[in-house]
Amino acid sequence: MNSEKRALLCGGAFLPAMPLALDENRKFDEIAQRRLIRYYLAAGVDGVAVGVHTTQFEIRLPEINLFETVLRVCMDEIHQYEEKTGRAVLAVAGVCGPIEQAVGEARLAKSLGYDAGLLSPGGLSDRDEAYLIERTRAVADILDVVGFYLQTAVGGRVFTYDYWRQICEIPGVAAIKCAAFDRYLTLDVARAIAATGGRVALYTGNDDSIVTDLLTEYQFVIDGDEKKVRCVGGLLGHWCVWTHTAVQYFRAIRALEPGAPVPASYLTLAAQVTDANSAFFDTRNNFSGCIAGVHEVLRRQGLFAGIWCLNPDETLSPGQSKEIDRVYAMYPKLNDDAFVADFLAKEQEMGA
């Protein structure tokens, strides 16, 4: 990663997790995918994460074989935007699987111009922590790593504090996305970062606690010295919808003076964002409709033509559409429908 991109990542970036655009035949819709990336860039994101859970892990299956295609298309749009605007954009690629697969995916991502790899522990529940630490070192030798604490409800596992401390000591680990959806486990990661000098950036992936994570400063006394750690940014599936509004509240929170009293309005916002996330991610059905849920929001806004997923069985849960109706009505200030409508009108004028 070049110095400008590293400063952006370590300083705190807004990173949505990229959904996958498909047509009614469940085939890759490149036109819609490129338009979606342009929407995120127009909304003011600092970068995007591609090939992650929200992009659907099935893109790696041999019979689907979309992993490289999607990474290449997204990187092409990012490069075009950077050349046009001169603004640096972070590109994070999802990396998963055993060591051999993870190393191969990291090499591919690097060859395409990606800045870092979000290293998922999913699907490796039979491997011990030592193996996963070795895997992190192997990937970090190729590409800067964003570590990943994935919640157990979607294939993650509980790690020891010592595991995170060793991860933080690997030079190529630049950040850790904590998506444990658990306050106790989130504290483990923050403490490990503090204990290893605070070099690693902490990112929230806790979609159930986004605003609270961004507002919280962790303080630890370690060997007699007070250490402070806070979430400097987020890498979130929730941020792939209503993105323009989310960018605005992220910037406002980052602009707060350190140590200053937190306005009560932010605590209200925190509860509202969590409630909206519950509807989008289908928490009432253990996240079974989470990808279809964000697709449904994008469909309502006109960014997607439908909610199709690669897995035909993956769709909205019973009652989920009404839950999305509810949070739309309850929290009208959170959506960015007007921004999206204006964006799509401009796209149409340009013939995109």
Report on the structure:
The protein is of the alpha/beta class and 352 residues long. Helices cover 46% and strands 15% of the residues. It is globular and about 60 Å long. The two termini are 31 Å apart.
Q: If you average the pLDDT, what whole number results? A: 96
| Rg, nearest Å | 19 Å
How many helices? The count is: 13
Count of β-strands: 9
Shape: globular
* Measured distance between first and last alpha carbons: 31 Å
Please give the largest β-sheet: 9 strands, mixed
Q: Quote the beta fraction.
A: 15-25%
Low-confidence stretches: none
Q: Pairing-aware structural class of the strands and helices?
A: alpha/beta
Question: What percent of the residues sit in helical stretches (DSSP H or I)?
Answer: 40-55%
SSE order: HEHEHEHEHEHEHEHEEHHHHH
Write the topology of this structure.
Elements: H1 3-11, E1 14-16, H2 30-43, E2 47-50, H3 67-85, E3 90-95, H4 99-112, E4 116-119, H5 129-140, E5 144-150, H6 161-168, E6 173-179, H7 183-195, E7 201-204, H8 210-215, E8 217-222, E9 225-236, H9 243-254, H10 264-281, H11 290-301, H12 320-330, H13 337-349
Parallel strand pairs: 1-9, 2-3, 3-4, 4-5, 5-6, 6-7, 7-9
Antiparallel strand pairs: 8-9
